[in-house]
Design a protein that fits this description.
The structure is a single chain. The chain is α+β, with helices and mostly antiparallel strands. The protein is built from five helices and five strands; from the N terminus they run E-H-E-E-H-E-H-H-E-H. Strands 2-1-3-4-5 form a five-stranded mixed sheet. Strand 1, helix 1 and strand 2 form a beta-alpha-beta unit. It is globular, with a radius of gyration of 16 Å.
Length: about 130
């Protein structure tokens, strides 16, 4: 008799999704920012802090580059956390605050630093929906 058990998915850690599309991470568009350093720093912080870093081609709000989305962990989502979109994420201070927040648990677990709250942007879908009203 074949009995297969359905197992719960493994808990997912907080994840930083860094846009590296046409505008974000582009040294020609933003020559003053060290995009490779930022991604290396995010990945090193993830290795130390127990969260994940992924890259994606284009998240959409190109006029607010660099965009990084902070996705909650499984525990953070259960606690009511939702993805937070951060725009204009190019300087060292912003990168450090993203690392600290993700290491502390991210959305739903830890409050974001005040400066990141000032850099919060609307996801493209939400912005389009509000524009149609």
């Amino acid at each position: 008799m074949n009995r297969s058990a359905i197992r719960a998915a493994a808990p997912r850690p907080c994840t930083l999704v860094a846009c590296r599309g046409c505008c974000c991470g582009n040294p020609r568009k933003h020559p003053g920012a060290d995009h490779a350093w930022q991604l290396d720093r995010l990945r090193a912080g993830a290795a130390e802090g127990g969260f994940q870093v992924r890259t994606t081609n284009c998240l959409g709000p190109c006029d607010q580059a660099n965009v990084i989305v902070v996705q909650p962990s499984t525990a953070g989502r259960r606690a009511g956390g939702r993805a937070v979109w951060i725009g204009f994420a190019m300087d060292d201070d912003c990168t450090d605050e993203l690392l600290d927040w993700a290491a502390a648990g991210g959305p739903g677990i830890a409050e974001p630093p005040a400066a990141l709250e000032l850099q919060r942007i609307r996801p493209p879908r939400e912005a389009r929906t509000r524009a149609r009203r």
